[in-house]
Amino acid sequence: MSRFETIAEEVTIRIYREDSTLIERYGKRGKEQTFTDNLHHLDYLKAASDLNSTAIFTDYAIWLNGILTKIGMTSQTLIDNFIYLDEALQNSPFVDHAEAAVYSRYLADAIQALQSMKGENKYV
Questions:
Q1: Which pLDDT belongs to residue 108?
Q2: From what superkingdom does this record's organism come (predicted)?
């Protein structure tokens, strides 16, 4: 398992542990998709970092939120996912501190953008 797969698995488990309604609503297929989505989140974080552009990840988050809300997810679910992802990255032995700090900043920017769309600013 790659380092990103390990992190994506950890985050997926936490998401479904924290919100038991997700497994009822989306089943095993939804859980598998959450894992895949987290791999995409990590790929976008890496690309944004490689290009030194928080806008790449923020634009991705806004685009993804639009898709997810159309299928019945809430923006808060994506925000929670990003919070859990940030915590997993900060605590991962597979990610060095400098890399985790950049990812954390990009995740915080995306969370702020999503909350601004909701009219909230709890995680600035």
A1: 99
A2: Bacteria
